[in-house]
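Posting this for the archive.
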Amino acid sequence: MTPQDHRAAVAAETARFVAAVQHADPALPVPGCPGWTLADLVRHAGSVQRWFTVLLRQRIQEPPRSRDVDLRLPEQAEQYPAWLAEAAGEAAAVFAEGDLDEPMWAWGADQHARFWVRRMLFETLVHRVDAETALGLKPEIDPALAADGVAEFLTNLPFAAFFAPGTAQLRAEDRTIRFTSTDGEGDWLIRLRPDGFGLDASEADGSGDSGATADATVRAGAAELLLLLYGRLDRTAAGIELAGDEELLAHWFAHSAF
């Protein structure tokens, strides 16, 4: 997917999120985010979008020293959905202001403005799923979009130790885990080394050879893979197929929380 695709998807995912929650009880618990209510979830999503928008507008070239942002948060939780919609509108305006291929500091692998658009997209998508699940709805995710999210997650996870400290434990003597979408949308090989882990360089785009041997494999639809990686599905869930080294898989899922 291109940065333009990601721009459009941020708008679409936010609109779906807003539609789901705009008439819902803000106090409803969100199982995907234990301890949170819908109000907490919407406030978080809108705050993240506004924070990323500030970073994009400034095109920062080094890590920010402050996270202070004028959120303009409404006093009433019932107004949060409209506030979230406004955040997406502000983001869209900033997306259109400059070249998303411009160099920019990012905490992940891609040191360009486009990193933040893609990151905003999947932050919004996963929390849209959280909201719909809390409301008893059955979330739908386009398989191609889900596959892009799997690639984004696996590409950036090795850089996430400052807020996901468990990832520092993802070390091994050249062990591999293959994630394969059963709907044909992608295939990714993760290699764990003594000094770290990451996507195999030849397969970072998800077009690997699913026939190549790995020490463990995870197979599911792209949407299920995405939700599994984000901890929204358990690896024993229906439709998820595991094979190979069970201890390696247990180690991965115990330390890869984002």
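The chain has a mean pLDDT of 94. The domain at 145-255 is CATH 3.30.1050.10 (Nonspecific Lipid-transfer Protein; Chain A).
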